[in-house]
Design goal:
By secondary structure, the chain is an all-alpha fold. Helices cover about 85% and strands about 0% of the residues. The protein is rod-shaped. It is found in: Golgi apparatus.
Length: about 1100
């Protein structure tokens, strides 16, 4: 027995777990590779043979070792509980993170849906705006075409009226010359008639004297007849002579009267013939004038078509020039075009100032050139607006890049925080691995194995996350470099635009100076036009004065006519009854004269109405002048506003440059920080790349972190998609605003062109009406003069005929010739009436022409009013559209603000995650404090257990006693008795008393069963002598390597009731497992023998056998026996 005891003690001392040699064994086992083959665990160890020791020492050593294993198992249990708690916390954090990520996904999906809907609405609105813009442009182009056609018609009518006025002026000049010639002829005829009248009076006086002499002779003859009645024969002869004389006198008087009548008739006939010739000439002149008018109209139409083509070519050239100017603005590099434009503008101003300002045509051309200069200045202002828009767009791009940079910085901060948290977790895991190395566990349960697998997965996940973070870090560095390059490009663009803006400012100042000069020139031209109009008014006043002089002449002629009538009445007193007929005819002629005077009064009234129309035109001109001044004031206000906007843009540019410099410095700092973090990350990767025995548990964590990083990457990609969608929406919105601004500018240009055309049309109408009024006045004056001259001729002829009739009253012999002359007079009167009818027809045609002109003017004014009404309606529609677009922009800005709020909410959630990480760290610190408290309690527990080391476990002794009583044979009882003696630490005397030393060599104990179950003491001793210890150990290993049923209970369940008071919450499931341990003691009677001792190679393996209780040990001993 002593020999077997010494052998067992040497074996137990050789391969049982030794606390002194544990460090070396665990360190050697930790240095082995995880991928080592399982055959390495079967290597044999050299067993040194020591001197035999006493049984009590062996028991004490075993007991000491058992206590140490119990303590280590308690520590391992606590560490496992801590690891379980950590795993639970990590799982909880993972669930919270997954929930937060899902919430972020939902929020991002909602934001994406909102953005998609907003984008669709914006696209629909943009299409609607494009359609409306197209419609408006078509309408404006149609209106512009109509205005151009109206302008062409007005220009054609103006040219026709000017030509007609020129023709009428020439006709009036011809008529005045003819009237002067007729007046001269009439004066000469009056003088000749006066001479003839004097001669006829003289002849009449001679005839009266001869008649008186004849009467005297007749009286004398009668006296002679009375005195000498007796001389009958002589008397009869004298009577016959007297009769003959009387008949001769009567014949002479008759012939004289006939001669006078013939002379008067001939004079009348000559006058009528002259008048008919004059009327024929006038009719021929009118026909020629009409033919010339038709030819001039045809020529004017041809000229107007040529002018129309020329204007179209000019308009196309102006449009092309406008397009070239726009292209030069957009590129901002074509300086030559600007210099050429400046030279052209200066040349135009020089040409304008070199004009001769004395002629109205040149003044009008100068006004047109000034208007063209104004339009070019407006185009340059449009260029300035476009450049300011481009600067605003670059500012928006810079702000977008700055926002991207801020988001990248926020992502970097988040990644830095994640890296720091990963590094902390890695350090924590390394510390846990070191603790696991230092604990030197003999066995470990299946839960611990599962936790190791989970930790390995986490380590792999952490490695994956680390790699993904490195890739993201590289991508972020690339993006940051690209952002810096874009920023530099934008800075260069901003510098170029600033230079261009400064040049454009100088150019605009020069143009403003030129504009001021042009406006001054325009004012001088307007003054000169006013002077010209004043001169025209003076000319009209002079014409009125001439009209008054003509009227005075008419009054004098009327006075002369009254005098002639008085003379005629005197002659009628001495005339015969035949002259009464002539007086009645004279009265008829006077009635016609009154009708002519009535017509003259009507003509005068028409002249008065034309004067009223002149006043109305003057009022219209004043109103247009006031509108022009108001437009100039508005243009000055707009120019001041543009200057203010340019100053504000310069201030914004300075602020932008300052902001860009600050952001550049910040980006340099961030780049340095990123390089430092790269170095730290490389160092960390180098440290992580070193081999580690416990990397499996860390890989699992790394895999978890990689999964989280993938989710974060997915969220980042979603955020990038959202940012791209936002940028596209912003670009679409800018394009819509730009198109709207272009439409407004086109509308303003069309409005300016319309105002210019309207003003030009009013000027043309004013000039045309003035010229028509003047021509009408001149025509009326000439007609009045012609009528007065005709009346004077009639009066003079009537006076001469009446005088000749009075002188030849006694000439009865010429009665027959007088009747013939009367017939001729009737024929001439018929011709005169036909000529009067023709004259009336000509007057009716003139009145129709005047009515047509008035109707044309009325239609033109109505068309202008309709055009103004349509333009105002278009303006109101454009304003309403602008208001709708502003409302839409407000809605879109609100949606963008909502999206920004969603992103801020995501940022707040990330901040909450960081706060949760901080709270986890604080909870870990509290857990470390609890661990320290638990270690102190465990130390106290160990002290109490050490104080109770001499006590025997009641359950073990009870089981041994029951087994001893129930044992079927003596050998089993002897084995149980030996075990009881070892448990109760019996000495040699007590063993002798019990009967254990009766047969020294027949100890078939539990160790002999290990060595091969010998049948007797001789066999056992012989077998032991024959077989070496190594062969026995090989047999033991083969037996242990055989498969057997594993118990689910662990060594942790033994100490669970002891530690339940201190860690009830952390190890709640363990208490339930501890209650089931005693119950299993009665049901595992038939299990195979499980060794207490393990070789060194088994400790090096990562897998462990399940824990064993005292009842299982007793069952193994009983089964061996």
């Amino acid at each position: 027995v002593d020999q077997t005891a010494t052998v067992t003690t040497t074996l137990e001392d050789s391969w049982f777990w030794d606390p002194e040699n544990n460090v070396s064994s665990t360190s050697s086992s930790s240095k082995k590779d995880d991928n080592e083959s399982p055959s390495s665990g079967t290597e044999l160890t050299t067993i040194p043979l020591e001197a035999p020791a006493s049984e009590s020492e062996i028991i004490e050593r075993l007991r000491r070792q058992l206590n140490e294993t119990v303590q280590q198992l308690k520590k391992q249990q606590l560490e496992n509980a801590l690891l379980n708690e950590q795993l639970v916390q990590v799982g909880r954090e993972n669930r919270e993170l997954n929930e937060n990520i899902e919430e972020l996904d939902r929020q991002h999906e909602v934001v994406l849906e909102n953005l998609v809907t907003g984008k669709r609405e914006l696209q629909e609105k943009c299409t609607a705006l494009e359609v409306q813009a197209k419609h408006s442009t078509d309408e404006l182009e149609a209106q512009l075409g109509e205005l151009q056609r109206r302008f062409e018609r007005l220009e054609q009518s103006y040219t026709q009226s000017c030509q007609e006025n020129v023709k009428l002026q020439t006709e009036t000049e011809k008529l005045t010359t003819e009237l002067e010639r007729i007046v001269c002829e009439n004066v000469e005829a009056v003088a000749a008639l006066d001479g003839q009248l004097n001669e006829m009076r003289r002849e009449r006086t001679e005839l009266n004297e001869s008649y008186k002499t004849l009467q005297k002779e007749n009286e004398e003859l009668r006296l002679k007849v009375v005195e000498e009645p007796f001389e009958t024969v002589t008397k009869v002869g004298e009577d016959e002579e007297v009769i003959l004389l009387r008949t001769t006198i009567d014949d002479l008087t008759q012939r004289l009267e006939d001669a006078c009548n013939e002379r008067d008739n001939l004079q009348k006939l000559t006058a009528e013939l002259d008048r008919s010739d004059h009327i024929g000439r006038l009719e021929r002149d009118i026909g020629e004038l009409q033919n010339e008018l038709r030819s001039v109209i045809i020529d004017n139409s041809v000229q107007l078509e040529a002018k129309e083509k020329e204007y179209d070519e000019k308009l196309a050239a102006m449009r092309q020039e406008n397009q070239t100017l726009r292209e030069s603005i957009t590129t901002t590099e074509n300086r030559a075009a600007g210099d050429e434009f400046d030279s052209r503008l200066h040349e135009l101003v020089r040409k304008l100032f070199d004009l001769d300002l004395t002629q109205l045509d040149e003044l009008e051309e100068r006004l047109h050139t000034l208007k063209d200069a104004d339009s070019k200045l407006l185009a340059l202002e449009k260029k300035m607006i476009d450049s300011s828009k481009e600067i605003n767009f670059l500012k928006a791009e810079n702000s977008r890049i700055q926002h991207d940079k801020d988001t990248l910085n926020a992502d970097l901060m988040q990644y830095e925080k994640e890296c720091s948290s990963l590094m902390k977790n890695n350090d924590h895991l390394i510390a846990e691995i070191e603790n696991l190395k230092c604990n030197k566990l003999e066995t470990i349960n299946e839960n611990a194995e599962d936790s190791i697998v989970v930790l390995e997965k986490q380590l792999e996940d952490s490695h994956k996350i680390n790699r993904s973070l490195e890739e993201e870090y590289r991508e972020i560095n690339c993006k940051l470099e690209e952002a810096l390059e874009e920023k530099e490009e934008l800075l260069t663009k901003v510098a170029l635009l600033e230079g261009n803006q400064s040049e454009q400012k100088l150019h605009s100042r020069e143009l403003e100076q030129a504009l001021s000069i042009a406006r001054a020139d325009k004012d001088t031209l307007e003054r000169q036009l006013e002077d010209a109009r004043l001169s025209e008014r003076q000319h009209t006043e002079e014409l009125n004065a001439e009209l008054e002089s003509v009227r005075a002449q008419l009054t004098t002629i009327n006075e002369d006519h009254a005098a002639l009538v008085h003379k005629l009445q005197q002659l009628q007193q001495s005339s015969t009854d035949n002259l009464h007929t002539w007086e009645s005819k004279l009265e008829a002629l006077q009635g016609e004269l009154k009708a002519k005077e009535i017509e003259l009064e009507q003509v005068r009234e028409s002249t008065v109405s034309s004067q009223h129309s002149d006043t109305e035109l003057e009022e219209v001109r004043n109103r247009l002048q006031s509108e022009l001044t108001a437009a100039q004031e508005q243009y000055q206000m707009e120019l001041e506003k543009q200057k203010q906007t340019i100053d504000s843009l310069a201030q914004q540019k300075a602020d932008l440059v300052q902001l860009v410099t600050t952001k550049h410095n910040e980006s340099v700092q961030y780049h340095a920080e990123i390089q430092r973090l790269n170095q730290l990350l490389n160092e960390h990767n180098e440290q992580a790349s070193q081999p580690c025995s416990e990397c499996v548990s860390l890989r699992e964590k790394v895999q978890d972190y990689e999964r989280l990083s993938d989710q974060i990457q997915f969220l980042r990609e979603k955020s990038d998609i959202l940012t791209t969608n936002l940028m596209t929406e912003q670009t679409n919105q800018r394009l819509a605003l730009q198109e709207k601004q272009e439409l407004l500018e086109q509308k303003n240009s069309l409005q300016r062109d319309l105002d210019r055309l309207r003003q030009h049309l009013m000027e043309i109408e004013e000039a045309h009406t003035q010229e028509t009024v003047e021509l009408q006045q001149r025509y009326d004056e000439t007609r009045g003069k012609l009528a007065s001259l005709e009346e004077e001729v009639k009066k003079s002829t009537n006076a001469l005929t009446s005088a000749s009739i009075r002188a030849n009253q006694q000439a009865e012999t010429l009665q027959t010739q007088y009747q013939l002359l009367l017939q001729q007079r009737d024929e001439l009167n018929a011709k005169l009436s036909s000529a009067d009818d023709r004259d009336q027809k000509n007057q009716a045609s003139l009145t129709n022409l005047q009515c047509a002109l008035e109707q044309f003017q009325m239609n033109k004014e109505r068309d202008i009013e309709l055009a103004t009404v349509n333009i105002r309606k278009d303006l109101e529609r454009a304003r309403s559209r602008e208001e709708q677009l502003r409302g839409d922009l407000k809605l879109f800005q609100q949606q963008l603000n909502d999206a920004k709020n969603g992103l801020l909410a995501a940022a707040r959630i990330s901040d909450q995650l960081e706060i949760s990480q901080v709270t986890v760290a604080s909870l870990k610190n509290e857990l470390a404090k609890r661990d320290e408290k638990y270690a102190a309690l465990e130390h106290r527990l160990q002290e109490t257990e050490a104080s109770q080391a001499d006590k025997v476990e009641k359950m073990l002794v009870k089981n041994l006693v029951i087994g001893y009583v129930v044992a079927p044979n003596a050998s089993d009882k002897q084995q149980i008795m030996k075990l009881i003696s070892t448990v109760l630490t019996m000495d040699q005397a007590e063993c002798i008393k019990v009967g254990l030393n009766r047969s020294q060599g027949g100890g078939s104990g539990w160790f002999n069963s290990i060595l091969g179950h010998a049948s007797g003491p001789e066999g056992s001793a012989g077998n032991y002598n024959k077989e070496s210890l190594t062969e026995a150990f090989v047999k033991f290993l083969e037996k242990e390597s055989a498969p057997r049923a594993t118990d689910s209970s662990s060594l942790l369940n033994i100490v669970a009731p002891v530690g339940s008071q201190h860690a009830a919450q952390a190890a709640a499931p363990l208490s339930t497992a501890s209650t089931s341990a005693p119950a299993s003691s009665g049901g595992n009677m038939a299990t195979e023998i499980k060794p207490i001792l393990l070789p060194e190679a088994m400790l090096q393996q990562t897998t462990f056998q399940p824990a064993r209780s005292s009842s299982s040990i007793l069952k193994d001993i009983l089964s061996d026996s």
